[in-house]
Prior knowledge:
Strand order of the largest sheet: 1-2-3-6-7
Distance between the termini: 48 Å
Oligomer: single chain
Shape: elongated
Largest sheet: 5 strands, antiparallel
Amino acid sequence: MKLRLISALTVFSVLGLCQQAKAYNLEACAKDPMTSAPQVINLLQPIDQKMIDCIPNLDSIVSQWQSKANSIRSSINKVNIGNQGNTGIEKLEYNVAGGIISLVARVQAKHTWNVTIPEVRERVPVDKWRWVDVPYPDVRLEEKCVGKGRFSVCTKVPVPFTNHRKEKVPYVEMEMRTITPARTVSHTASATCKYDYTLNLSTWEQKPIFNCGQGSLGNYKLDASAITSILNGEMPTLGKLVTSVSITPPLFKDANRDTYNDERNKMIANHSSSFVYFSSQSFVEWASAENHGSNIVLAAVSGGGYSAELVRQIQQRLTTELGFLGTWASQTAVNLGVEQIVSMLTKGEVMNIGRFRVSVKAVNVPYVYQKCVANRGDCTPEVKSPRLGFAIIATPIN
């Protein structure tokens, strides 16, 4: 786990004392003695002059370690992971009886971001009204005349006809309506790591403990999945921080590993009756979280979809990848183009080509970051940075 927060702690590799110890003041101590000797002295606070006068070497220890604390604090205060991250020295103490310096540095990665959930619109039936002409039988009077001239006789007689009137009638029409309005949801990802360092001034034994996986500190629970949650969250600069800083705390060693061969062998073993082409390592390294962002890569490898920009870049990259398909193509007599691979990868399509049913699966090929105490088995939780790979699988059609 190569976090920039660790870089500030590299000063611990030179924590040994090197100044000439100053003698304590017996005369001053005799005039104004301490009523009781302290067991532990907080070196982050001003030291009572009585202690300096009466405790051997305390003046030198305070001077050196307060100077170191100021240097460490100045360094780590420049590093904030997330828009609400914070750092600091939690404890710097001197155990007088045991002659042991204890230092605890705390680094909290915290990021808060908003996600806008778009509105949901659907076509739904809507009751409406309209005016229509409705026919109905009616009677009107018409004049009928018999005879001619002054001998004609006229009368009005009823004549039936079809009349019309306006009526309001209901009908149903399908319309797009908002089912759920758009809303903004706030998310927070946080984790707190502690670096505990002890130095025995007599034996010069050093003991480091780097812990992100147990206990609690303040209002934030420390659990093994917290760091992973942050890496998978909306953390614009965290992807580069994880992979660009190679400094490790003293007495720790890197235990990072690339899962490319493991994932490749697993995919081939799971499709033993098929011909499998697994994307090249150069493609996987290109399709990494630090190059494209954790959210984008995670969405692709988990079936959450591909952004238009990622699809465009994959198409460009595949023009190079096609050069590695020669052996697979000779085994299957299937010659795929970039458009076919992208379509099967992004849409989940399956194609029957010649004697084979061909599909393309997205595969998460994470790079694992981890640190372990040198010469011991204690390690920090694994942090898996996602990378996108793919497998082209040609299964014979029976």
